[in-house]
Amino acid sequence: MANESANDTAQNIGPVILLGPPGAGKGTQSRRIVEHYGIPQISTGDLLRDHVARGTALGLEAKVIMARGELVPDELMYGIVATRLREADCKRGFVLDGFPRTAPQAGWLDAFLEKEVFDKSEKCPPVVIQLLVDYTQLLQRLAGRRSCPTCGRLYNIHSQPPLVDELCDVDGSKLVIRDDDREEVISGRLAAYETQTRRVADYYRAQRRLVAINADRTMDEVTAQIFAVIDNHFKDGCE
Ligand code: AP5
Fold it and tell me: What atom of ligand 1 comes closest to residue 69's alpha carbon?
């Protein structure tokens, strides 16, 4: 009950979009935004992996595409994103991690927000934060990533190792390597970013909504830059 009233009076902060290549730190920083601002993380990668794990029709189709490091077709993405964004916890805002990833997805999101979100509540145009990271740094981050299959916590054998080798600090589960973090898939994912997702940055730059930050720094330094951008963008509330 206490939480409900806190949320009722908390300021809307609107949609936050984290844009960046595989390994840029979108998932890591999204979790910190969730903790700090109390808004949910919508990770399309996690939504798809959940469909794959449950063996749904969408999951079966997405599995082979993801294994090649390619993007799942836009038409398949719209349904799962719309369903998630219609949930009640997205009312005050949300952080999008991995969506939009193509120019048509960005256009679809604008239309969705206008029709289904801003029509019913205050208009809070998204802030789009682009995480810039050096290519060799990305390769090292992806190759070193480990995650807990139970609680989802992220680790990195170079920058954020667990206390005990290969075991989760929180629940002791054996850490796993993501299927698409194999060397031959990583190059396909980075190529998909270059050919398709860079256009999303152009789309938002043209609308003067893109803020690029240097995400080559430590996790805490990146977090500080992101929080400053969000606080500045939503400082006067929504339109
Ligand atoms: P998705 O799950 O979204 O993967 P991704 O975009 O490739 O991003 P990653 O999760 O690999 O990286 P991240 O930026 O979140 O970095 P992280 O924080 O983990 O998508 C997977 C697949 O699903 C796609 O290839 C596609 O097939 C499909 N898909 C998803 N969305 C789609 C869409 N909208 N349309 C079509 N298809 C879609 O960090 C990486 C590592 O680095 C970690 O180990 C972390 O600990 C470490 N690290 C993080 N920050 C730092 C730092 N500052 N310094 C040092 N280490 C750091």
Answer: 25
